[in-house]
From TrEMBL, chain A:
It comes from the Bacteria. Gene3D superfamilies: 3.40.50.2300. The modification 4-aspartylphosphate is found at D52. The keyword Phosphoprotein applies. It comes from Oleidesulfovibrio alaskensis (strain ATCC BAA-1058 / DSM 17464 / G20). Residues 4-119 form the Response regulatory domain. One of its GO terms (biological process) is phosphorelay signal transduction system. This is Response regulator receiver protein. Keywords: Phosphoprotein.
From TrEMBL, chain B:
It comes from the Bacteria. This is Chemotaxis sensory transducer. Residues 92-260, 292-515 form the Methyl-accepting transducer domain. The lineage of its organism: Bacteria, Pseudomonadati, Thermodesulfobacteriota, Desulfovibrionia, Desulfovibrionales. Belongs to the methyl-accepting chemotaxis (MCP) protein family. GO terms for molecular function: transmembrane signaling receptor activity. Gene3D superfamilies: Methyl-accepting chemotaxis protein. Keywords: Chemotaxis, Transducer. InterPro entries: MCP_chemotaxis, MCPsignal_dom. It comes from Oleidesulfovibrio alaskensis (strain ATCC BAA-1058 / DSM 17464 / G20). One of its GO terms (cellular component) is plasma membrane. GO terms for biological process: chemotaxis; signal transduction. The keyword NAD does not apply.
Amino acid sequence: MAPTIMTVDDSASVRQMVSFTLRNEGYEVIEASDGKDALAKIRPDVKMVITDLNMPNMDGIELIRNIRAKSGFKFIPIIMLTTESQAAKKQDGKAAGATGWIVKPFKPEQLLAVVKKVLR
Amino acid sequence: MSGTGKLVQESLQLLGDVRKKLNMLISSREHEFLALGENIMSLSDAVGGVRQRSAELVELVSGEAIYSVINQLADDMGRLHELCSVGSESNLDELVRVRSNLHELIRLIQSYARVVRTLQMLGISTRIESARLGTDGRGFNTLADDVEKLAGKIVEYSGQIVQYAKNLDALADEASVRSQIMLGDQQTCALEAASGMTDRVHLLQDAAQAAKERSEHVDALMSDIAASMGQIVSSLQFHDIVRQQVEHVDEILESVSRMVIEKQEDSSPDEELVWIMDVARLQAMQLEHSRDSFSDAVGQLSAGLGQIASNVMHVAHTAVSGDSVAGSALDSISQTINDTAERMRGVAAQGGEMGETMSSVASTVADMAGFLEHIEDVGAEIELIALNASIKAAHTGDKGKALGVLASSIQRLSQDAGNQTGVIAATLDTVSSSADSLKSQARSFHDATVINETIGKLEEVTGSLRALGMQAENLASALSSEAGDIAESISSVVRGITFEKTVGKELSAAQERLQGLVRRIEAAVPDAKSVRRPAQLDQMMNRYTMKQERDIHLKAFGGQSDEADDDNIELF
């Protein structure tokens, strides 16, 4: 069975694009519009989270901390997908427990390469 | 309120108006972007479907199946050619030999005439000598009677053999004519199978090669189109990026407005105006960049989609652009197979007739052999009678001396006749063997089983090829039709992309309003350079998330970015 991946972004168009790219490769996708929504929707079968950084209600860094605090998700890969490219921000993400960082705009094949590498 | 104080209020009002417009500008259009995204993704799926079909087409026309069938066809045609080439040329040679032997037979039989004449003379002489001897030669009259009677039988049998031989010669002549016709038909058949069919198989191979190259070309085009669709899907991110840029402009305008309204810094109206001017100038640049990026992105999206539509149309045309060489070659091969089959069946029928003729020849030869046996019996009988007469003549003493000579002559003659009969029998045996061989050859022609089997195989193979060709044609046609639909849908999507004009216009309007404000403040505060800028303003204006924004900021203040355009992916 294909792994389930959660995409978290306040932009519906980004969620749409990420979901399309992943579903085309056979992945199951769960969409969430911000950190809070993601925490409500996350399931034990989710194998990876791809999240934006700047979102209303709960941002990406806080989401990572919350997910890491949940039982069963301590080692789940979490990739940041954001327009933010400053080293300090990346450092914040890494400190919070992010697995990787992708700066928008990205190419679908780049996203897929990261997903495959991380899930392997 | 002072002039500058009034301008501060007007500036704050303007910033509020610009913010309101910007707030609505991108977020209110999200449904349009989502609909565009849905359309593009659905087209991408459709392109994926056609890509799959093009791969199936390549598999079908380049796969082992089609070449294996063509090779099978070539092999079966080779077999047909072999069948046609089993010529009746050897029959003709055999028939020439038969006729030559029959002529020899007639010549040999005719030499019996000399034997008969001598026998008749010896018979008369025996009768005369027997009369001269009176009672002593009485028994020799019987010898004379027998000799005359036997001479008559030889005449009768040899006459019959000659007649039969002449009849056989006529049959062999007829068989030669028939063999000539068969040979002609076989040569035509072999020529058709060899040259015509080989050419058509080559045509078929060329057509298969052309179809293979065409389908590979279509597949490569579809692969490029699928990759381009991926880029188009990826380009949809521009909406999110521009949205964020506009949001950042809004946030900074809001921050500077709040800083002034809430008097967060101990400030004079001139200072507040300069702070607003700095922010307005910078955000006008950010909006200009956003507008240009947005316009470029939409332009590239439309151009990319237009190019894809054009490429998909090219695929639609290319997929069905193959000529009907394969079809016409197959029609031609089928026609040749039918013609060859008909001709081969004709040859088989002629073979049947030939077989009957040869059976008749064999039967006649058997009759002739019977007559020859009679002649042999006659010879043996004469020999015995002559031996008996010689003994009788010896008993008669000197008186019977002449009769003894006659009896010896008769005995020698019968021995000569016997030798001659042996030669005739050997010749007749040769004719008989030739007839058997011709009969067997004719029987193999008459057996149409192998022909029918080969023709059946050929029909099956051409049927398979026709089915494969039809399958490929249907697949190409469906692919072409789907590609045409996709091209039309893409064109329709491109025609529907109009929002960039409105968005661009509104971003330009906001930019111009901010620039107008900058000009007004520059005029109101000529000594703006010397005005104090608090640290809060610097922090506010440096609050960016995107490198593009930071680059514009630095450019505005005469700086240069030291951020490298690194790989946008980092795994920790």
